[in-house]
Automatic annotation (TrEMBL):
Xref: InterPro entries: RapZ-like, RapZ_C
Species classification: Bacteria, Bacillati, Actinomycetota, Actinomycetes, Kitasatosporales
Record's signal peptide: none
Domain RapZ C-terminal: 4-120
Protein name: RNase adapter RapZ
Length: 127
C-alpha cells in the first residue's frame, strides 16, 4: 500500500498551524508578494503570484528539500499518511505556491498526494 502525502498550506495570521510531521515557516526568509500592490489581492491561483514566488532565490531549493523530506517520511516503517504543512503570513501567496510545487514534484515521483489550502480563500489581512 502506498503512503499518501497530505500537504496543507495555511496562514499564521488566521489560526494556529495544523498538525504535521513537517511544518515549514515561509514568513521571514522569503519576500511576501503581499507588499506589492498589484499582487496583494491575488492568490496562488494567479500566475503572476506563482511566478513571483517561484522566482524568489532559495524557494526552488526549499521545494526540492521539502519533497525529499516528505519522501523520507513516506519511506519509514510506520504506516499512515505523511502530513506536510507550509505556512506564510496570510496563506494566500507563498505557502500555497510552495505546497503546489512540492505536490507537483511528489506526484511526478509517483506518490499519492492531496493538497488543501486552508486559508487561501480568506480575505486579505490588513497589516
Amino acid at each position: 500500500m502506498q503512503t499518501t502525502i497530505e500537504i496543507v498550506s495555511f496562514g499564521y495570521l488566521h489560526a494556529t498551524p495544523p498538525a504535521a510531521h513537517l511544518t515549514v515557516d515561509l514568513r521571514h526568509h522569503f519576500r511576501d508578494p503581499h507588499v506589492s500592490p498589484e499582487l496583494r489581492h491575488m492568490t496562488a491561483h494567479d500566475e503572476p503570484v506563482r511566478t513571483t514566488v517561484l522566482a524568489t532565490r532559495g524557494i526552488r531549493d526549499l521545494v526540492d528539500s521539502i519533497a525529499g523530506a516528505a519522501a523520507a517520511f513516506a519511506a519509514g516503517p510506520t504506516a499512515g499518511p505523511v502530513a506536510i504543512a507550509a505556512g506564510c503570513a496570510g496563506g494566500r501567496h507563498r505557502a500555497p505556491t510552495v505546497a503546489l510545487a512540492v505536490a507537483g514534484l511528489l506526484t511526478a515521483a509517483g506518490y499519492a498526494v492531496t493538497v488543501h489550502h486552508r486559508d487561501l480563500g480568506k480575505p486579505v489581512v490588513d497589516r
